[in-house]
Amino acid sequence: MTTKKYIRIAAVILTIIGALNWGLVGLAKFDLVAYLFGSLTNASRIVYSLVGLSGVYILSSIKRFV
C-alpha cells in the first residue's frame, strides 16, 4: 500500500473516533477523550487536533469517497 492510502485510512479511523466521541458527548454528556487522556491535557489536545485535521482531510477529498 502507498503512504497516501495509509494516511487516508488513518484519517477515516480518526474521523470515526471523533464522531463517536461527539455522539457520546451529545447523548450521555461523556467525553471519552477527556476521560482517557485528561481534560485539555497535551495528550487530549493532540487527539482533538488529529481528529480535526482528519476531518479537514476527509472534507478536502470528499469527491474521492462519494
UniProtKB/TrEMBL annotation:
Membrane-spanning parts: 7-25, 45-62
Signal peptide: none
Keyword annotations of the record: Membrane, Transmembrane, Transmembrane helix
Lineage: Bacteria, Pseudomonadati, Bacteroidota, Cytophagia, Cytophagales
Pfam family, one: DUF378
Keyword match Plastid: no
Protein's UniProt name: DUF378 domain-containing protein
